[in-house]
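QUALITY CONTROL LOG
STEP: pairwise intake check
CHECKER ROLE: data steward
CRITERIA: each record must contain a sequence immediately followed by its structure tokens, with no blank fields

ENTRY 1 OF 2
RESULT FIELD BELOW
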Amino acid sequence: MTVDTKPVWGLSAAHLVTDLYSPVLPAILPLLIADQGYSFFLAGLIVTVYNLTSSFVQPLVGWVFDTRGFAVHVGTSVAISAIFISIVGLLDNYFLVLASVAVAALGHAFFHPSALGTVSRLASDSIRGRITSYFVIGGNLGYAIGPICAGVAVGLMGLPGLVVLAVPGIAIAVALRRILPAPDRAAVPETRAPAAKPSYRAVALLVAASGFRAWAIFGSVAFLPTILTMRGFDLVTANILVSGTLIAGVVGQVVGGVLSDRYGRKEYTIIGLVTAIPPFVVFLTTEGILSLAALIVFGFILWSTFAVTVAMAHEIAPGNVGLVSGLMLGLAVGVGGMGVSVTGWIADMTTLTLGLATIPLAIVLAVPLFLFVPYPWKSLVRGRLPSRG
């Protein structure tokens, strides 16, 4: 089937800009810990507040998009994120930091459900994994670039230098207002048949499983710059290594999307999660080139399952793509954000290495939940060969 991918790539570009600001907080945690004297728990709580605020708002935004066809323009979303993340470096009051982070998270929340709902309606089930991955990799690239931008800014000018990041964000937001229509105009037809009710059990299991995976993803990203600096890397180099891990995840997203179209989404998700555990254990227990190579492999495999499960959610609830997008990119990520605080608390009580041992544990907890999701197998069905389509 031929699909016009230009709108998808346009939204992917907007996704890149929006998500550029998401990893700035983990990137500057080492400086917040050193300069402001925050504990691992308080530092992790900053990331948690960001994720939880976005998490609780995104399903509501998705529901409004599904039922009313209304969405905040992507340019406005980017501007909110850019301004309120960038001023964190100017604040020396912990509660003001939390407030600014929460407002920035609103900008992040406004974007995803409507944009991803639009992408879903442009794809058929046979290519949904690939098309969804095109959109998601924009966010992954932004997430990969963010630590580099933050690392360079604070490396040269300290925490106040973070305000420089507001300039490109605002400029791009203005450009987006000029070149992109409001998401609701393109995504929601004036009339449509009532949607069938989704399987609530399937959605609940999928969101719960994705929550544990989000703990693994964001728990590792939150503290990777810190553990790498503890191993002797400077902050800029540490954030470049984290960005390399995230870029590997970008490649993994496309590979995972294509393979899931061919061999099955459930199959790919389970295999991907199980095979992501060994490289992370190698990263924690070794040093040098082997450790860094294992980290890159871990990023490639774990992130490769993300777009696949979003595509699963859209197929489970085709009439509620905005809502399930908000649940998958919002609520599930928020649950994972709570795990970041748990990882930080264990690190405070023991060591950061032991705290990061919660990452493979979270993946182990996710696997059976994904197994129980009532979603059809494709390759692992008795007497059936993989589709050649």
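ENTRY 2 OF 2
RESULT FIELD BELOW
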Amino acid sequence: MPELFHVVTADEANARLQKLLTLLDHAEELPLHAALERVLFQDLHAPCDLPAFPRSTMDGFAVRAADTFGASEGLPAYLTLCGEVTMGRHADLRVGSGQAARVHTGGMLPPGSDAVVMVEHTQAVDVKMIEVVRPVAVGENMLPVGEDVRAGALLFPRGHRLRPQDLGGLAGVGLTTVPVVVRPRVALLATGDEVVSADTTPGPGQVRDINSYTLAALTRRVGGEPVLCGIAPDDKATLRRMAVAALATADVLVVSAGSSVSTRDMTAEIIASLGQPGILVHGVAIQPGKPTILAMADGRPVFGLPGNPVSAMAAFELFVAPTLRRLQGAGEALSAVTTARLARNIASKPGREDLVPVRLERRADQLWADPVFGKSNQIYTLVRADGIVRVPLDQSGLYADALVEVRLF
């Protein structure tokens, strides 16, 4: 494959791949404590009302709201105490006209009552009577049955990624296990004669394997299960054998290519041979990450990422991450973003999208984004950065002092 790429935009590249994806159809049942950030395999409905009984939201007195209408400091309403509702117990008393029952936050409201007067708005007359100095409306300071969620209501749709509050909500209705999509297995294959294991002292002309670790971490972040498949040499037969073996046990294959033109050409040739329809995109109008490859091999996505760590990470975030989300049936991620003022000019070329790492600094109550310039093989360019600023295709750069959107790492 020639070095002169037929580049497409990032959006077009993703569109070509996404229309060929099919959802993973394997599920597993997990306990709530193990389900954080997992994606639901099916819709979940509430098996019961929440709350299951009318509850007080304040310490105070359960009353009939009509008995407090018109109450004021100068003309309080006098109510007779009929008892107290014990926390965690059924209310075994009834509030009649002109009566009140002591209740506590979260406790059950007794039958006959329809509101709660805050204890701060009452005065004790004696052990059997209180005066109410402010009126309450029906339903005030209480939760009726099903106020939070009704039995049978849709709690979460298929594809929802479970957050901490979601797990609490499921526990509240008694759902202690959930069906989730099995994590997509992502085979990560590094290549290049110059690449050695991270625990090896590099010889002359060699570099440690950075991509396997960064790509594995990115895979976990979007719900995938990384499978490190080692480092393939710049030998066509060996590379193809390792790629075939890696793809055979995974849902997705990611090859981080060597830096030379010959290696990149060989990687593209091997990816094209793994299955149909083969390569969909070879070359994307982004910087860094231009030589990225997107392919499908008999229903499984295959990616050829540049060997330079910054390029590989940028391409992963743009193409592999959304693919893993879609395989799980999850929607687009709501990336953490912030707005900052650009500290320096960023030059760019129209016709490509530039992804520029920035470091965030607060100066006199203003957030500033300072570009961290560096070559795409310098991993510490990203280590020193807090996020990415994207320069659109149709712009020749961004000027200092402009307000920019920063996508946080």
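INTAKE CHECK: passed for both entries
DESCRIPTIVE NOTE, ENTRY 2: The mean pLDDT is 93.
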